[in-house]
Amino acid sequence: xxxxxxxxxxxxxxxxxxxxxxxxxxxxxxxxxxxxxxxxxxxxxxxxxxxxxxxxxxxxxxxxxxxxxxxxxxxxxxxxxxxxxxxxxxxxxxxxxxxxxxxxxxxxxxxxxxxxxxxxxxxxxxxxxxxxxxxxxxxxxxxxxxxxxxxxxxxxxxxxxxxxxxxxxxxxxxxxxxxxxxxxxxxxxxxxxxxxxxxxxxxxxxxxxxxxxxxxxx
Length: 218
Hints:
By secondary structure, the chain is an all-alpha fold. The chain has 11 helices and no strands.
């Protein structure tokens, strides 16, 4: 496997801890975690695991770590986006499996514990009407993506369509961040903080229009 460290970093001085530790630290010091990832030989692996954790249940402020990491490692910018997307999709499949196989036991408890019951019911209704586009829209909005995973599994939605929707939705998000860094460089974090709501709203509006016009039906 190719070493993804910045020049000068060594295995003996690797600053990163395990993914759980880095995930907890991300809440308090996201830029510090991003710097450690940039100087770690395991940076790509760790950001992928953090994406996996964030996609299932662990509340990690991934963007505020991911953008500075991308800014520090513009030499592997698109690879970072791909690894984060992969981690997210693997997590999505796990959530789908919970909904498909063990929702009546583990899934119900998870929904109750997280306080997602109202969102779950709303998403299920929307999913029954729009399926593929419902996953797309939820994947790029602040609605918990975990809810979409569980609903897709509960409804036995075709897994290949679920994966395709997750790839498109999260691909827009993560490769969009990579594009932001590519275009704006060191100003990317400022641009994200200033315009993230309008960006998400624009993407959501496009998807809603597609639903209304029935452009894409599955």
